[in-house]
């Protein structure tokens, strides 16, 4: 089943989970997938199975859920799934989206109980945006961001993957765009996973990103938010209400202390994004067996890599992974 090095001292149990609602996507971002016809899973969990899965996760000790994909808003039943999972009572419910379908869905998602939303936005220039996403329509995403702002989420973030000689000169524009709307901008190193593994020469490190924005930001160490994943934040110069986040998956793999589990849309539980190994809980979810899901979570978690020695997306196995398929 699993080839992962067994963890010596895992954080127990997993507290945070990323649930992929679908592996389908309407974009093909150049660091994520090779083209739009790179294959899809044969089976996806039904909405009922997703709800059972979430109940099992809660019983196993999970407290925070983020929906992702692929593109989670391609699922027609996304609002229903969010509403039913919100009733379980997780401490946090968030979603990451490319924003292409957000204009219609933002208000319903908020009303369904979604608390926080992250929208991927690599460029404010339509031609560059289309190039990076292989055909994405910037105007639809900007209109989706406006709709999300109007819907009143507890927190909004923008994720921009920084690609050398493409959008690296646009970082300040993205920061000002986000700050002017009360959104937290975050900049991601290209993770050397899947397509990203073929772009090592285009990685802009977190240190380089930070120096490009130095005139806007306070000096000093970037700090993590408690219980909020690997991003590190720096405050704006002279305005502590504004921040910029950095996610440095290539130069600092932050595996130590990782409490995250991933659930792919076919019901596979994976303790690490950088390998495709895992334990399936799809049968348990189909049979509405939440206790069985909880047992599968405990089984999968035994194989969490040892964060002291594991090098995350710098491991050779990472190049074989599809972030879109597993759920990024
Ligand atoms: N489709 C949704 C979206 O793009 O927001 C959700 C899934 S996507 C896999 C989640 C996040 O992973 C996005 O912000 C995307 O930019 C990021 N991502 C994908 N491939 C990446 C890579 N190789 N390196 C860094 N970030 C990556
Ligand atoms: Fe789709 Fe998100 Fe991957 Fe882009 S990053 S191809 S939007 S899954």
Structure overview:
By secondary structure, this protein is α/β, with parallel strands linked by helices. The chain has one domain: Aldolase class I (TIM Barrel, Alpha-Beta Barrel). It is 28% helix and 19% strand. Strands 7-8-9-6-5-4-3-2-1-10-11-12 form a 12-stranded mixed sheet. Helix 1 links the parallel strand 1 and strand 2. The longest helix has 14 residues. The N terminus is likely disordered. The site of S-adenosylmethionine has 21 residues, from strand 2, strand 3, strand 5 and helix 10.
Question: Could you give a short description of this structure?
Answer:
The chain has ten helices and twelve strands. The protein has 328 residues and is an alpha/beta fold.
Number of helices: 10
Integer count of domains: 1
Write the CATH fold name: TIM Barrel
Q: Share of helix among residues?
A: 25-40%
Report the portion of residues in β strands: 15-25%
Structural class: alpha/beta
The largest sheet is: 12 strands, mixed
Low-confidence stretches: 1-9
CATH class, anyone?
Answer: Alpha Beta
Strand adjacency order, main sheet: 7-8-9-6-5-4-3-2-1-10-11-12
What is the first-to-last residue Cα distance?
22 Å
What is the strand and helix layout of this fold?
Layout: E1 16-22, H1 47-59, E2 64-69, H2 78-86, E3 92-97, H3 102-112, E4 116-120, H4 126-133, H5 138-151, E5 155-161, H6 171-179, E6 184-188, H7 206-212, E7 223-224, E8 232-236, E9 239-247, E10 260-263, E11 268-270, E12 279-280, H8 282-286, H9 290-301, H10 323-326
Parallel strand pairs: 1-2, 1-10, 2-3, 3-4, 4-5, 5-6, 6-9
Antiparallel strand pairs: 7-8, 8-9, 10-11, 11-12
Helix pairs in contact: 1-2, 1-9, 2-3, 3-5
Bound molecules: S-adenosylmethionine and iron/sulfur cluster.
């Amino acid at each position: 089943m699993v080839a992962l090095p067994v963890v010596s001292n895992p954080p127990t149990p997993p507290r945070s989970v990323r649930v992929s609602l679908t592996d389908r996507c309407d974009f093909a971002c150049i660091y994520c997938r090779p083209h739009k016809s790179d294959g899809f899973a044969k089976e996806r969990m039904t909405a009922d199975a997703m709800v059972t899965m979430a109940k099992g996760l809660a019983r196993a000790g999970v407290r925070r859920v983020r929906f992702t994909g692929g593109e989670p808003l391609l699922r027609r039943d996304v609002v229903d799934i969010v509403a039913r999972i919100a009733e379980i009572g997780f401490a946090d419910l968030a979603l990451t989206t490319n924003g292409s379908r957000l204009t219609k869905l933002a208000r319903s998602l908020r009303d369904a109980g979604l608390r926080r939303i992250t929208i991927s936005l690599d460029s404010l220039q339509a031609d560059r945006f289309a190039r990076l996403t292989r055909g994405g329509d910037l105007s639809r995403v900007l209109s989706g961001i406006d709709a999300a702002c109007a819907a009143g989420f507890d927190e909004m973030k923008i994720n921009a993957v920084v690609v050398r000689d493409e959008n690296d000169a646009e970082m300040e524009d993205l920061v000002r765009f986000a700050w002017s709307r009360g959104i937290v901008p975050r900049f991601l190193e290209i993770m050397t996973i899947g397509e990203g593994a073929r772009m090592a020469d285009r990685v802009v490190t977190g240190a380089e990103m930070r120096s490009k924005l130095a005139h806007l930001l306070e000096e000093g160490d970037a700090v993590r938010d408690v219980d909020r994943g690997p991003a590190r934040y720096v405050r704006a110069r002279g305005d502590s209400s504004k921040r910029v986040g950095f996610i440095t998956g290539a130069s600092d793999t932050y595996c130590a202390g990782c409490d995250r589990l991933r659930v792919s849309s076919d019901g596979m539980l994976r303790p690490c994004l950088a390998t495709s190994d895992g334990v399936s809980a799809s049968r348990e979810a189909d049979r509405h067996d939440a206790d069985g899901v909880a047992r599968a979570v405990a089984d999968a978690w035994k194989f969490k890599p040892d964060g002291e020695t594991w090098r995350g997306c710098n491991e050779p196995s990472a190049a074989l992974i599809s972030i879109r398929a597993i759920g990024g």
